[in-house]
Write a structure and sequence with these properties.
globular, 78% helix, mainly alpha
Length: 560
């Protein structure tokens, strides 16, 4: 344990080196990202406060609705944490470059196992900070609880974090042992995709409410509606691992189910201890077996005398044509051959699918006659889609130029101009992101009653937004290149990444408001084309500056 603490302390000192160096530029970037994170958490807190206060307007259904919100919310956070842990852990546990070095040192394998588990937990606990913490603060504020509630709630959420991390560690180690040679790209992607599909099915079945669920919660005409609704929810979430944590938090906040609070706290503690024990013993044993195979690799020797036969195709590109097609196919193959990148892409797509399923469950018959409600939902969908676009762009588009790496001079010194390189990457990411967003939003929007005509206008707004977000991310990534860094996440944490986040999120918010005004008029029988023209003008204004600067800076590229 002492060795693990020393290694973590060394990593913390290395990570905080820019603070000790007192470089103003680095401090400004770090402060900017901290400000963005603070704004997100503040927005989440205000949203939860309004939601809980709206629930209190229904005195009979308020306890059941609060319990449902906690059950569904903690189930969502639990699934996000475990799936994110497994997707990230496949790289942190078994594909880290320093593993071979650490395996040759006197560092015990149990210490390496604990180090990797702690590192992965720190990387994947974002859902608790961004989602669970503001929900806890809002719950205590609305129900007017004292400081003791917040301390007990933080301790409960801390145990929940530990439980999710321990379970994620066990699943990661078991998956590695089952796959054998864990560096298999197909195996990692298949496991990640399977977990995401299972998570989407479970969340869609239990967490997202149906009309029958809402009827059971409100119990119209029933004198015993509140207890019946609470018993209904307890039966619905009985087998979810997050259920005792949600019940305990509900009891501490509202005083409901007070007689079951000790039992819920006991079960929660038992789950945490049981998961930690499983991760410490069977999980560590599985990790020990898998880490050696992952570090040694697999080399199959050819029989003596057998002549090697060339593999693959002699002509590249295979699917596309020309120099630009070759660059497109190169980037596409590089993405598909990186299981970590594919896993992150699938995880973000999973979140978008989950949001689409939520739209599919909305009781649309009751709201289609209210044009303002439909317009707000469509605008919210546009903003949510733009947020996902920004997330994808920051993770994949912004680092696209830098990920050419130290061999970027080969591409830059070729007869193909740099403008063609930008065009290739712009085409690949624009068409890919627009296609994914368009398909996933089709079902939800049609169920909102916008019709085929409205969906065509939605597609136009989405296309303009995709063009703008991809253009800004690619242009600013060109202005802030780093050919020495191979980690895409680290590449997005510089000044260019901060500017991309702020610019794109502000642009998406404005487009959401303009889209609301447009669809409000469209559903009212008007033809408000001026709002579409405003979106087009805003898109041109936002993208023109970064593109012009990137085009001028391209000629001065020097790869060192």
């Amino acid at each position: 344990m002492r060795l693990v603490l020393r290694l973590l302390a060394w990593r913390a000192r290395a990570a905080s080196a820019f603070v000790r160096e007192r470089e103003v530029a680095k401090l400004v970037v770090a402060g900017g990202f901290a400000l963005l994170f603070g704004l997100v958490v503040t927005g989440e807190y205000l949203f939860f406060v309004r939601a809980f206060r709206a629930v209190l307007q229904f005195p009979v259904a308020a306890p059941a609705l609060t319990l449902y919100a906690l059950e569904g919310f903690l189930a969502l956070v639990f699934v996000l944490a475990v799936v994110s842990f497994v997707v990230t852990g496949s790289a942190v546990f078994f594909r880290a470059r320093e593993n071979r070095l650490l395996l040759t040192t006197p560092l015990p394998l149990r210490a390496l196992f604990l180090l990797r588990a702690v590192e992965t937990a720190l990387l994947t606990s974002w859902s608790f900070g961004v989602l669970a913490l503001p929900a806890l603060l809002a719950l205590g504020s609305v129900w007017e609880r004292r400081a003791g509630f917040y301390l007990a709630g933080l301790a409960l959420l801390g145990g929940f974090v530990l439980f999710a991390a321990a379970l994620g560690t066990l699943i990661t180690a078991a998956t590695a042992a089952a796959l054998g040679h864990f560096r298999s790209r197909a195996g990692i992607v298949a496991v990640g995709g399977g977990l995401l599909a299972l998570a989407a099915a479970l969340l869609g079945r239990f967490v997202i409410p149906t009309q029958a669920d809402l009827y059971a919660l409100f119990q119209p005409g029933s004198l015993n509606g509140t207890p019946a609704a609470i018993y209904f929810l307890e039966a619905k979430f009985t087998y979810w691992p997050s259920h005792p944590f949600a019940s305990a938090l509900f009891g501490m906040a509202t005083g409901g189910l007070a007689h079951r609070l000790p039992g819920a706290l006991t079960v929660s503690l038992g789950l945490v201890l049981g998961a930690c024990l499983l991760a410490a013993w069977p999980g560590r044993a599985l990790f020990t077996r898998a880490i050696r195979e992952a570090a040694e690799g697999v080399v199959v020797a050819r029989p003596e005398g057998e002549v090697a036969t060339p593999r693959g195709r002699a002509v590249f590109p295979v699917l596309l044509r020309g120099p630009v097609g070759a660059l497109l196919e190169k980037d596409l193959l590089g993405f598909l051959r990186n299981p970590q990148e594919v896993g992150r892409g699938l995880f973000l797509a999973f979140l978008l699918v989950l949001y689409t399923v939520f739209l599919f469950r909305i009781p649309t018959r009751e709201i289609q006659s209210a044009e303002e409600v439909v317009a707000r939902l469509v605008a919210f969908t546009l903003v949510a889609t733009g947020y996902f676009l920004t997330t994808f762009a920051l993770r994949f588009v912004f680092p696209a130029i830098s990920l050419e790496g130290r061999m970027a001079w080969v591409v830059f010194s070729s007869p193909l101009s740099f403008a063609h390189l930008l065009l290739a990457k712009f085409t690949l990411y624009t068409l890919g992101l627009f296609g994914v967003m368009e398909v996933l939003s089709l079902v939800g929007l049609l169920r909102l009653g916008v019709g085929l005509h409205g969906f065509v206008w939605w597609s136009l707004l989405l296309f303009l937004m995709t063009l703008t977000v991809v253009s800004v991310a690619l242009a600013l990534g060109t202005l802030w290149p780093n050919f020495r860094e191979e980690n895409a996440e680290a590449l997005a944490t510089n000044a260019g990444g901060l500017l991309t986040s702020a610019l794109c999120l502000g642009y998406v918010g404005l487009v959401g408001w303009l889209g609301y005004r447009f669809f409000l008029g469209l559903l009212g029988g008007e033809r408000p084309l001026g709002w579409v023209a405003a979106v087009a003008g805003l898109s041109l204004l936002v993208a023109a500056g970064p593109l012009w600067r990137a085009r001028r800076a391209a000629a001065a590229f020097e790869v060192v």
